[in-house]
Design goal:
18% of the residues lie in helices and 38% in strands. The protein is α+β, with helices and mostly antiparallel strands.
Length: 157
């Protein structure tokens, strides 16, 4: 499946956990405004509920998910140090859709990539091995891994 990098990026998220997080904080459809303006917004990334992958060229990207494979990132720039918490599903959509987020509508319009994965914690890295291929690397973890991903990571320099 190919997705467009709305606003120069993507959000990798767990839909059930995102919904629960937003309900607890009375966040409506404009999740992006919360993520960019609220001091407590980092918690959504640290807990692996939603992770922004930004600073991508505007383009259609093929999405691949690689699970529990030994990966050395020789000759590849990798955005490392991210966390993903799964209830069994990983989703990705263009970052711009988080300004007016409606999961069912985005699924019906083909704007969300979905992949079934094992439940639990995952350490996550993201690579751009080809100009139009975004690869998500997940490794299962027994406990919550430390999140140290760089929001300003540059895939191109």
């Amino acid at each position: 499946m190919r997705l467009f990098s709305e606003l120069g990026g993507f959000i990798i998220f767990s839909p059930e956990q995102l919904e629960e997080f937003c309900q607890q904080r009375d966040i409506k459809n404009d999740i992006m405004s919360f993520l960019t303006s609220d001091e407590s917004a980092d918690i959504i990334t640290v807990k692996g509920i939603a992770t922004p992958i930004l600073n991508l060229e505007p383009d259609d990207y093929k999405i691949e998910v690689v699970i529990d494979c030994e990966t050395n990132f020789i000759n590849q720039k990798a955005s490392k140090g991210w966390v993903f918490s799964s209830n069994g599903k990983l989703c990705i959509c263009g970052a711009g859709y988080f300004f007016d987020y409606n999961y069912n509508q985005l699924v019906n319009e083909g704007k969300i990539f979905e992949r079934q994965i094992n439940e639990g914690w995952h350490s996550m890295s993201v690579t751009l091995p080809e100009s139009d291929l975004l690869r998500i690397h997940l490794n299962s973890e027994k406990i919550l891994p430390k999140c140290f991903g760089d929001y300003h990571f540059d895939f191109y320099n």
